[in-house]
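re: the backbone from monday

yeah here it is again, tokenized this time
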């Protein structure tokens, strides 16, 4: 049996097991996906023990994304540019590091008919998730990527070494074709990271926050006529990309999304309410 897991601490809240196991069940695969709560000091030895076992790979979450980059024998171009690894695959005993969040973002946009190539993009936030999205947009033909963050210095660091990127302000939202929120503002609250009026001329907003599914940011943008893409699409599509890496196959994102929505509802956190 092929084994996979999310490795992090904490991991109990992760939706990855239900999403990936739903795919295995749908396809009748002899594979299972679990959750490993591992402390930072045990990360390297755990991965070392798994690389020669029946584990095919791992999803890596907080606080191990930097350590995952360091432990990788080979690193994808994207993960190298991002400077962090959220997916490991074990290939002939070698540890290969990947970054799938940025691809997840771009494919979630494409799912909604939004084209990145040639578009003016704004990324809100400058943390790890933001860096993945900035790299993905900048390397997939965005005309420019403007990074807006509460702490300006972090925005400067987030675009380090990347072409067609600059640091900006909320004024840059005017006329932006693609806006991606990578701040945590709006998670579990009705706050929005930007003033409502700043969204008047925006083409599309993807909010990486997925609880609630309909954030105030999305509500405001959609009210002005923008396309709204919720964060569960990005989460699902980064998992679709992981399945491509581990098994070299294309899976139905709706199977994963339905499984995630059912799990959230089961926990009493139905995000569609
Ligand atoms: P992740 O790994 O999910 O990207 P992170 O690295 O902690 O998480 O980044 C969180 C992002 O949300 C940062 O851009 C942070 O802004 P700062 O760099 O100024 O800290 C942003 N953020 C968090 N809380 C915020 C708030 N109340 N207002 C504005 N931005 C906020």
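seq for it, each position gets an aa:
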């Amino acid at each position: 049996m092929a084994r996979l897991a999310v490795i992090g601490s904490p991991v109990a809240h992760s939706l990855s097991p239900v999403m990936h196991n739903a795919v295995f069940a749908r396809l009748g695969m002899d594979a299972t996906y679990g959750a490993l709560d591992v402390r930072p000091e045990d990360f390297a030895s755990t991965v070392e023990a798994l690389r020669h076992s029946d584990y095919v790979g791992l999803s890596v979450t907080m606080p191990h994304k930097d350590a995952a980059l360091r432990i990788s024998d080979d690193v994808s171009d994207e993960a190298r540019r991002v400077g962090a690894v959220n997916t490991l695959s074990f290939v002939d005993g070698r540890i290969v590091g990947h970054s799938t969040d940025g691809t997840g973002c771009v494919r979630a946009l494409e799912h909604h008919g939004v084209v990145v190539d040639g578009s003016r993009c704004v990324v809100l936030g400058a943390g790890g998730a933001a860096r993945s999205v900035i790299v993905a947009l900048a390397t997939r033909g965005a005309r420019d990527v403007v990074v807006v963050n509460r702490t300006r210095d972090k925005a400067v660091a987030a675009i380090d070494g990347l072409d067609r990127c600059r640091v900006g302000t909320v004024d840059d939202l005017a006329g932006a074709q693609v806006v991606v929120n990578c701040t945590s503002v709006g998670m579990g609250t009705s706050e929005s990271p930007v003033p409502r009026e700043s969204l008047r001329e925006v083409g599309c907003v993807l909010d990486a926050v997925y609880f609630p599914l309909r954030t105030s940011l999305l509500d405001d943008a959609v009210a002005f006529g923008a396309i709204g893409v919720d964060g569960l699409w990005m989460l699902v599509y980064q998992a679709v990309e992981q399945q491509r890496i581990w098994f070299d196959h294309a899976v139905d994102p709706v199977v994963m999304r339905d499984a995630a929505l059912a799990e959230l509802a089961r926990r009493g956190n139905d995000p569609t309410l």
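The longest strand covers residues 2-8. The two ends are 38 Å apart (CA to CA).
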